[in-house]
């Protein structure tokens, strides 16, 4: 009988996720690290609306209609809901390749490229897939060690690949991608309506009070109104312009990243394979399509070895349990997968009486790992994008 100083420490997966994101509420809230501009957005929206409710709404409810402050409150809560939904959600971050997956992809690329003479640049790491009868190139990400799905891109600020990457918006403190683009668009649209609404009734309030008190006296009595007019005036152009630009993108089923790079309007004049050539269908797909679940499994559990003492009898026969985890990869629409996923590497222990034959996977041999180097989590199965 003997004792082994080993214990399992259970943690959430979000605590070990790579990248430059921050998590709150036990992984339920996911944002970028740079959140200063997001706090400024909250301050401007909440501050302007508080001034409107304090100075204009009491007067307008009496002299015009009590529905004015009611509609303003409903619009304000909708704007805040869309902002928080955009800022606190996973935009569509793709998981990075596990070490064995990355090793296999590297070997596969080297075998395909062959021996490159010294001094010559190796060919680009790309794969071709067919989408709507058109060839689309999948680029290799050197940071995440994966071939990015169509329309995905690596965000340099968050240091993660995001599916259907649109852009990184500091005003919402997060990336805008496949899972939160519709909420971002609804946020900009509702914020434009709220800004126009407040700006219009600020002018109405000043005009109504100027009839009895005079224009100069009205400005002296309502300094909050003057501040609101200035904030709304400078905000109106940027917010309404941003909403118009994204409306144009929604009608064409494009992203900001594709529009800036000219992916579908360059010299080659390649048609957008994701557009339905119908603005109604494009709007329905972007704004009314299904909300895809996150592939990160942020709140999943994972076990780690700790130094806390645990009494285990017969330490010679002690072998840590292996838990197989999967890296869930998003499906590529209309893609014909070139090859099936490769099986995981096999492990053997010293106590095995008969040697096990590892499966033949092209040039990749079986790997023998002694029990002392086994971890609690077995390598994940590879899924080819």
TrEMBL record:
Keywords for this protein: Acyltransferase, Endoplasmic reticulum, Golgi apparatus, Lipoprotein, Membrane, Palmitate, Transferase, Transmembrane, Transmembrane helix
EC number: 2.3.1.225
Disordered: annotated segments: 325-385
Pfam families recorded: DHHC (PF01529)
GO CC terms: endoplasmic reticulum membrane; Golgi membrane
Topology class, membrane: Multi-pass membrane protein
UniProt keyword Lipoprotein present: yes
Transmembrane segments: 37-55, 67-84, 183-207, 227-251
UniProt family annotation: Belongs to the DHHC palmitoyltransferase family. ERF2/ZDHHC9 subfamily.
Record's protein name: Palmitoyltransferase
Gene name of the record: ZDHHC9
């Amino acid at each position: 009988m003997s004792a082994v100083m080993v214990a399992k420490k259970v943690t959430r997966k979000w605590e070990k996720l790579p990248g430059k994101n921050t998590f709150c509420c036990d992984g339920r809230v996911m944002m970028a690290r740079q959140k200063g501009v997001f706090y400024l957005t909250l301050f401007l929206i909440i501050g302007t609306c508080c001034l409107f409710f304090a100075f204009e709404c009491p007067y307008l409810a009496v002299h015009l209609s009590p529905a004015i402050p009611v509609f303003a409150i409903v619009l304000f809560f909708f704007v805040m809901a869309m902002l928080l939904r955009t800022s606190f959600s996973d935009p569509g971050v793709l998981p990075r390749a596990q070490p064995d997956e990355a090793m296999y992809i590297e070997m596969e690329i080297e075998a395909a490229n062959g021996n490159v003479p010294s001094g010559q640049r190796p060919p680009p790491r790309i794969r071709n897939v067919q989408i709507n009868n058109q060839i689309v190139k999948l680029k290799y990400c050197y940071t995440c060690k994966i071939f990015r799905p169509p329309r995905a891109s690596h965000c340099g600020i968050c240091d993660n690949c995001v599916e259907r990457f649109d852009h990184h918006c500091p005003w919402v403190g997060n990336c805008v991608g496949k899972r939160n683009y519709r909420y971002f668009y609804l946020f900009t649209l509702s914020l434009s309506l709220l800004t126009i609404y407040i700006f219009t009734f600020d002018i109405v309030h000043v005009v109504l009070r100027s009839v009895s008190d005079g224009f100069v006296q009205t400005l002296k009595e309502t300094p909050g109104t003057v501040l609101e007019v200035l904030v709304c005036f400078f905000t109106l152009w940027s917010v309404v312009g941003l909403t118009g630009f994204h409306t144009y993108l929604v009608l064409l089923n494009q992203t900001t990243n594709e529009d800036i790079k000219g992916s579908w309007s360059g010299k080659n004049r390649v048609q957008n394979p994701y557009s339905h050539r119908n603005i109604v269908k494009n709007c329905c797909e972007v704004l009314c399509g299904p909300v895809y679940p996150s592939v990160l499994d942020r709140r999943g559990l994972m076990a780690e070895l700790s130094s806390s003492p645990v009494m285990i009898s017969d330490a010679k026969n002690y072998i840590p349990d292996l838990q197989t985890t999967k890296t869930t990869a998003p499906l590529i629409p209309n893609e014909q997968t070139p090859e099936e996923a490769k099986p995981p590497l096999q492990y053997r222990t010293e106590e095995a009486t008969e040697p096990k034959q590892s499966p033949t996977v092209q040039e990749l041999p079986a790997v023998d790992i002694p029990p002392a180097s086994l971890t609690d989590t077995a390598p994940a199965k590879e899924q080819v994008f």
